[in-house]
Amino acid sequence: MTDFRPFAERLLWARSEAGLTQKDLSEKSGISLPQIVRYEAGRSKPRLGGALKLARVLKMDAYDLMPELRKTTHEIEIEFSSDEAQYLDTAAAGLGITTEELVRKLTMVGLRERSKDPEMRKMIEAESPGLLDRIDALDEDGDQDQKHQR
């Protein structure tokens, strides 16, 4: 059995500092009481979504609660044709994000779509929920614009 005591100790300390009972934390976070008990007993730990819910209720940074969530930055260089770059820039602007963020999210979506590991798929979906729907909607808008230009 995996031991998650360091997380359990941080959670217990944070909950105590906030003056909350396990039941309070459960109700405010939307995480079941039995699951909170498992977390504090060191028998389980949350994924990103659960950690964010707990951190919000405890009024703390999720990274302080679960330092292992910290992201690592990797610099990569990707070459695009001018048409591809223009498409990515337009798509990113339509989504209200940077082109770099769009490429990162598309990479995660690609990983999710190709991943056979259910845990990996859930982690990536937690990172970029609804992204495919937004990109599909943007593509449909682009198709409409092209029809009007003809």
Question: Could you please describe the fold and organization of this structure?
Answer:
- It is a single chain.
- The chain has 150 residues and is an all-alpha fold.
- It folds into two domains: 5-69, 434 Repressor (Amino-terminal Domain) (Orthogonal Bundle); 82-149, no CATH class.
- Helix content is 69%, strand content 0%.
- The chain has nine helices and no strands.
- The chain has helices spanning 5-17, 22-29, 33-41, 48-58, 62-65, 82-95, 99-114, 118-127, 131-149.
- Helix 2 packs across helix 3 (33-41), helix 6 (82-95) crosses helix 7 (99-114) and helix 7 (99-114) packs antiparallel against helix 8.
- The model is unreliable at 141-150 (pLDDT under 50).
Per DSSP, the total helix count is 9
Write down the overall mean pLDDT: 80
- Estimate what percentage of residues fall within beta strands: under 5%
Structural class: mainly alpha
E-strand count? 0
Query: First CA to last CA: what distance?
Result: 63 Å
Uncertain regions spanning at least 5 consecutive residues: 141-150
> Biggest β-sheet: count, sense, barrel?
none
What radius of gyration results from the CA coordinates?
20 Å
Tally of domains = 2
Helix content: 55-70%
Task: List the secondary-structure elements in sequence, H or E.
Answer: HHHHHHHHH
Task: Identify the overall geometry.
Answer: elongated
